Amino acid sequence: MNPSDPFGTPEPVQALSEAIGKLVAQTGPLRLMHLCGSHEHALNQHGLRQLLPKELKIIPGPGCPVCVCPAEAIDQAIQLAKQPQTTLVTFGDMLRVPGSRQSLAQAKAEGASVRMVYSPYDCLKLAQEQPTQTLVFFAVGFETTMAGVAGLIAQSLPKNLYFLVAGRYMPPVLRLLMEIHDETIRGFLLPGHAAIITGLEPYRFMETQYKLPSVVAGFEPADVLLGIWMLLKEIAQGTAGLKNAYPRAVRDEGNLKAQAWITQVFDLKPGVWRGIDLVEDSAFVLREAYRDQDALRALNADPGFPAQGHPPGCQCHRIMLGEKQPTDCGHFGQACNPQNPIGPCMVSPEGTCNSWSRFGIRSL
Amino acid sequence: MSRIELAQGAGGRGMQELLDQVIRPALSNPLLDQGHDGAYLPGQGLVMTTDSYVVSPLFFPGGNIGKLAVCGTVNDLAMCGAEPLWLSLGLIIEAGFEYDDLQKILASLAQTAKEAGVVVVTGDTKVVEAGKGDGIYINTTGIGRSRLAQPFSPKALKVGDRLLINGGLAEHGLAILAARESLPFETPPISDCACLHGLVETMLATCPEIRLLRDPTRGGLAALGNELASASSLSILLKEKDLPIKSPVQAALQMLGIDPLSVANEGKLVAFCPEASAEKLLKVMQAHPLGRDSAIIGEVIERQSAPLWIQTQIGTRRLVEMPLGEQLPRIC
């Protein structure tokens, strides 16, 4: 928490949790879902569920880009990292994600060339510094990250820089959730970071088609509680508005320049969300104009074996859809832990199982 | 797992397992099993410790591998309540390493040793093939004389004991990370790398009832708290609002998604003392140049379901896990 941020101080938190208590007394027991690993992280890091009435449950959804990255993409990344004169560059989170046979960290320990960066723009420098080396950026993330990647790709790039793209677009998975969910979820907390890029419009179908309230929320304690309170207000008054509780970062129309970059560079195709399924129009893929930079087309990324299926006994798919909680899974905290993750929700600090494990959460 | 992984060297849970399951069982004996930063040797009141330095980059704001190789070992002795006396110096140099850099490192090492009042009395130098080292690795072994009547032990901790720290958290780890990854800071973060034996001497002189000292190096305060609480069979509760973290450090770590509790320090110590002595000890620490931002940051509590807890700024309580330890490899 940033102590200088008023959204992280005790006073607004206190006021909001009291206001939430009053609204829940009116609405009765209910379940809300968030779609963002950073929201689960904020809830756990600050112990926010301790401040909510017992009748109100905040259910974690599928919102961790590292977790939903399919094993096939990891296998391809490892295959590339093992090529001579080739370095695979990615975010630190990706290193321990299990592929079908091993993780990037294990491949690295065996000599594969893997480098960690903090910004996609670091690849540009690496590629310029090592003109004889093939650099492949393994791009994983939701629209917030992919906007930066698109901005990079839209520049004129060194010939030795390629992209293995496994980014995912959030709104279609919410549509999928709406089609299969059990109708006990009464509202959705929308991801503030993703909405900085897209704005509110891609979520309008929640209001018009499904008639359920949804609110974009930020990540400091009072931001999260404000989002919850605004959802409860919609529910209490019987409305289904699409609202923005994070106006200090999110403009309703989003970041138009970032949207233009994304549209210029990426097309949306059906894509596998690990643990969930194939989701229509949810995978960012490079457009034809950028085929020379596309590692899948320009380099040999075929590991030569099919991606391994779902780990036996793992409940991640049902956890990501809000049907189960981590402690319902027999592997949780036993064979599956942050050090040796079995399922996708345990691999990244933003994954629900990982977060519950690190912060000692045992129930909603 | 059939091979060593990088994360097992980073001071978190992976490292603890490597030590507990492989290294300690192979060598177990009563002196080693004290499990402190150094060993209290029988007889003469001597304390011995060793540490190897593999930091990357070799030069960073606030220090370099030479200064670190003295401070780290001196601090391990200081945490045993010992006055540091002698050092050995092992150098493993990669062929092709610049003479100039070696001289800068040695000059810094000599200067730090002189200021700390320790003497390098023996050494060893090896050169390895190009590509088989990372410029230079350094090992120092330190011998000192204990000022304590009774060696420190986590078993001495009691419910109600207070934890004090001598200043801002996470500065060394962030400085290394920023230097290594060329993170674009307007003012680069500076390592807190410093020898703490002088501060310790003052603290022990005023407050001989200090129960335990430990420096939160790799794995940071989170690893320290977990280790000591587990070893004492009690729990520790930190107070988030009392943790001294400089705001630029806080902001940078937040942006990087790194928990300041799990980041390394090289010029910080945590002292455990009885509640009644805490304010007195705090004043002594704050009066020392290396302790101006000292704070009381928590207390020892009855054993809970987990060793380490934190009371958040907004009044809730959560546990703090042993860090996994792969976020910042090769920091010291």
From TrEMBL, chain A:
PANTHER family: HYDROGENASE MATURATION FACTOR HYPD (PTHR30149:SF0), HYDROGENASE PROTEIN ASSEMBLY PROTEIN HYPD (PTHR30149). GO terms for molecular function: 4 iron, 4 sulfur cluster binding; carbon monoxide binding; iron ion binding. This is Hydrogenase maturation factor. It holds the Pfam family HypD. It comes from the Bacteria. Keywords: Iron, Metal-binding. Belongs to the HypD family. One of its GO terms (biological process) is protein maturation.
TrEMBL record, chain B:
Residues 36-145 form the PurM-like N-terminal domain. Signal peptide: none annotated. SUPFAM superfamilies: PurM C-terminal domain-like, PurM N-terminal domain-like. Residues 158-305 form the PurM-like C-terminal domain. GO terms for biological process: protein maturation. Belongs to the HypE family. This is Hydrogenase expression/formation protein HypE.
